Amino acid sequence: MVESTTNKLGQPHLMVQDAKTVDPSKLTALTPEVISRQATINVGTIGHVAHGKSTVVKAISGVQTVRFKNELERNITIKLGYANAKIYKAEIPSIIPSSTTAATAATTAAPTTATDDDDANEEKEEGEEIPTVIIPGSRPSHPMYTSRGSSHADTFTDPITNITYHLRRHISFVDCPGHDILMATMLNGAAVMDGALLLVDLVKMDAALAQQEQIRKFVVGTVADSAPILPISAVLRYNVDLVCEYLVHKIPVPVRDFTSVPRLIVIRSFDVNKPGQDVSSLQGGVAGGSILQGVLRVGDEIEVRPGIVTKKEVATAEGPSTVLVCSPIYSRISSLYAESNDLQYAVPGGLIGVGTRIDPTLTRADRLVGQVLGLRGKLPEVFAEIEISYYLLRRLLGVKTSDGGKQAKVQKLAKGEILMVNIGSTGTGGKVESAKTYAKISLTQPVCTQEGEKIALSRRVDKHWRLIGWGEIKRGKKIEVLEP
């Protein structure tokens, strides 16, 4: 039945999935049936505005992430953009770096094929040095690595060079806005990233080496300390194949939790029905997001929290009082998609579109953004107030002082001040009720989360939200969840 459905949708070139027989305990981020249809690794593109982030994503995936009218008019990214790409490796002898040992050389000289053993070898080689500077004449006339769109076949032969390429990775790019006033949007995208590409625009040739040294000094002691620096031109597609190679070798395959109860962060939601559409052909609302853990299947009964938040009057010893209550939205999964690829089950990684039977008016125009989707009765509690342990940065980043001196120090949290709190994909306002060992923050919008969740804190500086620190939820004030 699954195969016939797949063929009807015109995707016989992709591997068949079966939601009934799949064993989550045996799935990995490189399982062929999974990466044939959906991305399993999330890579963010970060950097300053107009430095070519969206152009690099388009060069690798072929997808234009700038889609909205106001983005096209200003030629900048405002909302998070998503694009999936498959990374392929050629079935020919590998180019051997000069630093490679004789034993490794003997192994890599043999033709490579898309087998499980090859995946294991690639994982072992992730720590191996790949030359950042390419010696003239050391590269073949054809690229060792290349990329195609998410719906492309898993194996193909280049008609010009007659070289066969095999699928190695399926990556989802999270294209973040570069403007400093959109920092909160970038932090929402960072919640699902496994790795990142930092784009720096090199306008002058003589500034390249100086900027390289500045970057290396800035990242000393961080996770990006040994990150490679690649000179590329996305417009001319120069060295884009090397970016694909480094994505395979340098970004480790993330360890995913496939066996826990599924949970998805809603990053966008929309109504797919067109104006004037016939009633008989109306479809339910669609929620798009990234699965944090577990496996979602077509037909699963789901719940969206917090859902619809309302106020309720209750009687107390001091008289009537108003409290918040939430009514979760219950539905069933009618379809799963990764871009145009239909899925029978979805795993952590990449952006997944979940087709539901929810009233489309509840999902249109990103109304479900920040909510959490999962199996009915299996989601965490909803908090209206959180108590956090927090850590502040020493200085504000990216803020110029009037005299050109050092950046301003980050002041301590003050009682009564308003902060921007990023919890998962949710950005909500928060009022500081107290700030001692732990900070107590009253949230503007209730959030479905749990103890131990990491959050980002931003403060309003010169009319812009600036990142000032991060924290971890220790406990909080829960609100009542109404059952149907």
From TrEMBL:
Gene Ontology MF term list: GTP binding; hydrolase activity; translation initiation factor activity
Catalytic activity field: GTP + H2O = GDP + phosphate + H(+)
Compositionally skewed regions (Acidic residues) per UniProt: 115-129
Ranges of residues in domain Tr-type G: 40-203
Main location (coarse class): plastid
InterPro entries registered for this protein in UniProt: EFTu-like_2, eIF2G, eIF2g_C, eIF2g_dom_2, P-loop_NTPase, T_Tr_GTP-bd_dom, Transl_B-barrel_sf, Transl_elong_EF1A/Init_IF2_C
Annotated protein name in UniProt: protein-synthesizing GTPase
Organism: Discostella pseudostelligera
Organism phylogeny: Eukaryota, Sar, Stramenopiles, Ochrophyta, Bacillariophyta
